[in-house]
Amino acid sequence: MPHLSVGEVHAKRRAAVVSLGYNLTAAGVKLVGALLTGSVSLLTEALHSATDVVASFFAYLGVRVGAAPPDEQHPYGHGKAETLAGFGESILLMLIVGYLLIEGVRRLIVGSELERLEWGMGVMALSTITSLAVGQYVWRTGKRTHSLALMSNGQHLMIDFWTSLGLLIALGAIYFTGWVFIDALLAIGIALWLFRGAWQLATRAFHELIDHRLPQQDLTLIDQILRSEPNLLNYHNLRTRRAGAMRYVDVHIVLPNDWSLQQAHDVADAIEKRIEQALRPAEVTIHVDPYDPERAALREQQNLYRELLRE
User: Does 3.40.50.720 match the CATH number of domain 6-209?
Assistant: First the structure.
């Protein structure tokens, strides 16, 4: 079965380490900037980066555990460790968002004083450039290696880029206009944006944890491969799920009932390999059923009845 190559596993671990190192540095620098300026929006960014530190740590652990091969206790592998890491990141981010919203509203009502804004602007200019570079690297590595943990971590870093850019512009506006209320409004806006991203990540991870089927484009690809086999009479009971980077597919195929066991095995094996290669990394299990006219007629009636119910 096509699993991730050694090079891809190393690429995932390297990206997780780079993300963790960057977020540790960014959180520390932004926190210093927030203390120097008294900016709640900059504090929001510092706490956002602090959550990214924990998120990067989750991603690193998820990648390491998820890359472990199947064993006697875990015959399907450890891929869901990455999904759990992504789900943990989303819950953590939602909790932080709650605090940031409360603090932003409080500052908007009570007011605040900002100072040394040029320091804050310098910090955010540096953060804008570095978060873009690191975020793109981590996200592309996650997409190439089918790692939900790295993709979600890269998404966090790209959010960091946009919020850093927005905060840089806002601090510049405050510096030239003196409108300090912009600081609290921006903090609230950033918090709401973070909640949206956290909710999307939590929804995706939850679906994987409860074995939601593969997306429609994957199902369409599987259907095309099955229908392209000239000796295949029909197929049914297609079931799919995902665990981390791995996709799992099992399906029943119908072959002529006068075939030998060897003939049926060769066709099933060829289809398994084609689907596994197309959805790599994937594991495909095919059950062979001999053609039965009565069962085929009954199945057609059941399918027709389902179609009528949909209408």
Answer: no
